[in-house]
Amino acid sequence: MNILACKPACDLPVTEEEHRWLVRDIWAEEAVGVIGAEPKTFKTFLALELAVAVASGAPCLRYFPVARSGRVLLYAAEDPLTMVRRRLEGICAAAGLKIEGLDIQVITEPTLRLDLEPVRRSLDATVARLRPRFLILDPFVRLHRIDENVSGEVAPLLAFLRELQRRHAIAVLVVHHAKKGAGRVRAGQALRGSSEFHAWGDSNLYLKKQGDDTVSLTVEHRAAPSIRPLTLELATNRLGVALRIADRAAASVEPPSSVDDRIIAALNASQQPLSFPELRGLCRTRSTTVYERLAALTAIGRVSKSPQGYRLAAGTSVPVLSTAGGKR
Q1: What is the rounded distance in angstroms from the CA atom of residue 268 to the CA atom of residue 285?
Q2: 150, 201, 210, 142: which is closest to 177 by C-alpha?
Q3: What span, in angstroms and rounded, lies between the C-alpha atoms of 203 and 207?
Q4: Can you give the pTM of this predicted structure?
Q5: How confident is the model at residue 189 (pLDDT cuts 50, 70, 90)?
Q6: What is d(CA 144, CA 150) in angstroms, rounded to the nearest whole number?
Q7: CA contacts within 13 A on the Cβ side of 32
Q8: Would 103 disulfide with which of 35, 63, 71, 255, CB 3.0-4.6 Å?
Q9: Using CA atoms, how far apart are residues 268 and 41, in angstroms rounded to an integer?
Q10: Please, what are the domains in the chain?
C-alpha cells in the first residue's frame, strides 16, 4: 500500500517576508479567497484593479505594492467582453499604463460550469498551459448549478479550487455575493450561502456600500494582520473609471516601497546605465526578484535595457521613497 508523502517540520520550505504577499496587505502569496459584497458595490472593479496590478507590477489602487507580479487569468461571466476591456482601460489610465502588453488572459467561453468534471479538467489544463500567477473568477454564482446553501455541494467545488492553487502554485480569487440586508453582521458571515466560503479563504476582501460612489473595504487574512478599513470611490478619467482610496490617511502606515520603486529610484540617481549586479546591490533584494521586476518594467516601457546596462525610459515618473517603507 502506498503511504502519504511526509517530511519533518524543520524541512518545510521557508518563505521570506518579501514573498509572503502577492499584493502587500491585500492578498497573500498563493492565497485563495473571495471578494464579497452585495450587488452594485464595485466587486468587479476591485477584482480588475487587482488583475491590472498583478499583471503589470504597478501598485494596486495606486497604493499597495505588488510583491510578485505575473500573468493573470480572468473569467468575467456577467459582463460583455467590450465592457471588460473598457474597465481595464480605465484602470490602466489611472495607473499610467497601457492595455497593450498587459499580461491578462481572458477566458472567453460563454459558460464555465465547475461542478462538471470535464470543465474542471479544462480549467486545470488551461492553468497548466498558461501558468498564471493569479486566477480570478467573477462571480461564483455563474460557475455552477449547485445549491450554494448546502455545504456538501459547495465544499467539493471550493476543494477543487484549493487543489488547483496547490498544484499550480497560484493565487485564486472568487467574486461572491453577500446576503441582502446583512450589513449588521460580521463581513464573513454576510456571504451568501454556506459558511464554507468564509472558512475557505486565506485572504478575503469585503465591500460595503457607503454612498452613491463610495464603499468601505475590509481586509481579512488567515495568517497575517489586517489593515484598517478603507473608503474607496469611483473616479473618472479620460478612458473610463477606476477605484481609488478616498481616505489614504486612514491607512495604518505609508505604503512600503516596492522593489519597482527601489529599481526606479536607483536608476534615477545614477548618471550612467547600471548593470544587473549593481542594481541587485542597490536594491538589497534577491536576484530572482530583481530580475523578474526588471523584465516587467522593461515590458511596460518604464525601463530600457542596452548592452551598457539598464536606464530609465523617457517620461518615467520617479517615486518618493518613504522612510516608513521596508519589511515589517
Answers
A1: 18
A2: 142
A3: 14
A4: 0.76
A5: low
A6: 13
A7: 19
A8: 71
A9: 40
A10: 15-250 (3.40.50.300), 259-312 (1.10.10.10)
CA distances (Å), 98 to each of 89, 91, 130, in order?
7, 9, 22
* Residue 224 phi, psi (nearest 5): -155, 155
Mean pLDDT, rounded, for 243-254: 65
List, for residues 75-99, the tens digit of each pLDDT value: 999 999 999 999 999 999 999 899 9
Please state the three-class secondary structure of 279-320 as a single string. Answer: HHHHHCCCHHHHHHHHHHHHHCCCEEEECCEEEECCCCCCCC
- Go through 231-245 and write b for each residue having 16 or more CB atoms within 10 A of its CB, e for each that does not: ebbbeeeebbbbbbb
> Which of 203, 154, 169, 206 lies closest to 185, judged by CA?
206
The vertex-252 CA angle with 249 and 258, nearest 5°, equals 95
Q: Which residue's entry shows cell 499583471?
A: 55
Q: What is the 3-state secondary structure (H, E, C) of 116-183?
A: CHHHHHHHHHHHHHHCCCEEEEECHHHHCCCCCCCHHHHHHHHHHHHHHHHHHCCEEEEEEEECCCCC
> Is residue 242 within 8 Å of residue 45, measured between CB atoms?
yes
Angle between helices 81-95 and 43-56 (to 10 degrees): 60
Type of residue found at 239: L
Q: For residue range 286-311, list pLDDT tens digits in order.
A: 787 788 888 888 877 888 999 999 99
What's the DSSP call for residue 254? Answer: P
Residues 6+ apart with CB under 8 A from 38: 177, 178, 179, 180, 182, 208, 209
Asked if residue 74 lies in contact with residue 85, where contact means CB atoms within 8 angstroms, the answer is no
**Residue 201, CA distances (Å) to 110, 198, 287, 308 in order:** 27, 6, 31, 46
CB-CB contact of 208 with 183 (8 Å) = yes
Q: Are 43 and 207 in contact (CB under 8 A)?
A: yes
**Cβ proximity of 40 and 63 under 8 Å:** no
Please say whether the beta carbons of 102 and 52 come within 8 A.
Answer: yes
